[in-house]
Design a protein that fits this description.
The protein is an alpha/beta fold. It has seven helices and 19 strands. The strands form five sheets. A seven-stranded parallel sheet has the order 8-10-7-12-13-14-15, sandwiched between helices. The protein has a five-stranded antiparallel sheet with strand order 3-4-2-5-11. It is globular and about 60 Å long.
Length: 408
């Protein structure tokens, strides 16, 4: 079902880095646990297995074919199913975390080793994998820049938007789901719909969908759809509605189980033709890949960052996930040169896009970031308009098979 790919050289997760006008706060925040859990992510490194936390995939129950069920109804049904399975093994229902029924069928759960050994033999279970921390981090050898928040004196068209032939104003009904750290809903350059969004966090400073405590998701959203409004920057599909799906907290940290919950929400609520961007990733997860493939199979086009490890993208999830509606994106610079940090490999990579020194929106202003996290939303914006075209080849692709540069 999936493109084959190897594990990362080290369990680092990928995203963009700050190289421009703003530096984000990364203070420890222990007040934003994943729903149903009590995880303090600061205790873990990116890619670490979270002790005692698991993602259970169930054998098909047929719930996905019951089109009459709303997202809330599916959630209730799967929570009942999960609770009944746990009670069968005398496991407390409070151990049950996120539940999934719109993409994969299953749930997140806390288990002792003894409970894991017992429940894993149940015939209703297809697979169990360890939950992991997922966190944003810089490409190898890079680090965050410094500086204060900034605004642009007048509207600019970033070089990446020009390179992919974006910037036209979108007036249709398609929506862009940004599966990330949230989006600053007050930003004057973005058309944000929080009422359609999802938040994996239920308390602390990350519980509000109106804010983005990290800034990464707001930057991604601006590349997709910043308005043509005489200020700031212009996105690839200017003015498109961007929807926050907050699965990363203010430190840029979350869990695989929370990311799957976000994907599950989008699968249940998006319309065929909508798009989604996932500028995040980590070690291989069959459950995460399966959820993303299910989302793509519903008609939602998904842009995925290839990763920043200078590694084969086949070693990472969800970058390795394969479907006709999935586009895995590597990064180039303003001279079309393949970025030194970018992951590579065909498959899974479908296109390259600008990902070095990308100016976009951040809470309170604008900043330049680098990473495949910045390349992916260029293609996400293109997918609003249709399938990307061929704008030439990336220069110096290390796999010897140059990635096509995506354009409208």
């Amino acid at each position: 079902m999936f493109k084959q790919k190897p594990l990362w050289r080290k369990p680092a997760l990928f995203a963009g880095i700050i190289i421009g006008a703003v530096a984000f706060s990364c203070q420890q925040n222990t007040e934003s646990p994943i729903t149903g859990d009590s995880i303090e992510f600061v205790k873990f490194q990116s890619g670490d297995i979270i002790p005692g936390k698991y993602i259970v995939t169930l054998m098909p129950t047929g719930i996905n074919f019951r089109k009459d069920l709303s997202y809330d109804a599916v959630q209730a049904t799967m929570r009942k199913t999960g609770s009944e399975l746990l009670s069968k093994y005398r496991i407390d229902q409070e151990n049950l975390g996120f539940v999934y029924g719109s993409s994969i069928e299953g749930f997140a759960v806390s288990l002792t080793e003894e409970q894991y050994q017992a429940i894993s033999k149940d015939p209703s279970i297809k697979a169990i994998e360890a939950d992991r921390v997922i966190a944003l981090g810089p490409p190898p050898g890079k680090g965050p820049g410094s500086g204060g928040g900034g605004s642009t004196a007048s509207q600019q068209i970033p070089y990446g938007i020009e390179r992919v032939h974006g910037g036209a104003t979108y007036t249709g009904s398609k929506k862009a789901y940004i599966i990330d750290s949230g989006i600053d809903s007050s930003h004057e350059d973005l058309n944000v719909s929080t009422s359609l969004g999802f938040n994996a966090f239920t308390k602390g400073k990350d519980a509000s969908l109106d804010s983005d405590g990290n800034g990464h998701g707001t930057h991604v959203a601006g590349t997709v759809g910043a308005k043509d409004n005489s200020v700031g920057v212009i996105g690839v599909a200017a003015g498109v509605t961007v929807i926050p799906v907050k699965v990363l907290d203010s430190r840029g940290s979350g869990s695989y189980s929370g990311v799957i919950a976000g994907v599950d929400f989008v699968k249940a609520n998006a319309t065929s033709g909508d798009v989604a961007n996932m500028s995040l990733g980590g070690p291989i997860s069959d459950a995460l890949d399966a959820a993303v493939v299910s989302l793509a199979a519903s008609g939602v086009k998904v842009a995925l960052a290839a990763g920043n490890e200078s590694d084969n993208a086949n070693n990472h999830s969800p970058a390795r996930a394969n479907h006709a509606n999935i586009y895995t994106i590597s990064a180039i610079d303003s001279s079309d040169k393949f970025a030194s940090f970018s992951n590579y490999g065909n498959p899974p990579i479908d296109f390259a896009a600008p990902g070095v020194g990308i100016l976009s929106t951040v809470p309170g202003g604008y900043a330049s970031y680098s990473g495949t996290s910045m390349a992916s939303p260029h293609v996400c914006g293109l997918l609003i308009w249709g399938n990307p075209g061929n704008g030439g080849n990336a220069i110096g692709d290390p796999d010897g098979n140059p990635d096509q540069i995506a354009i409208r």
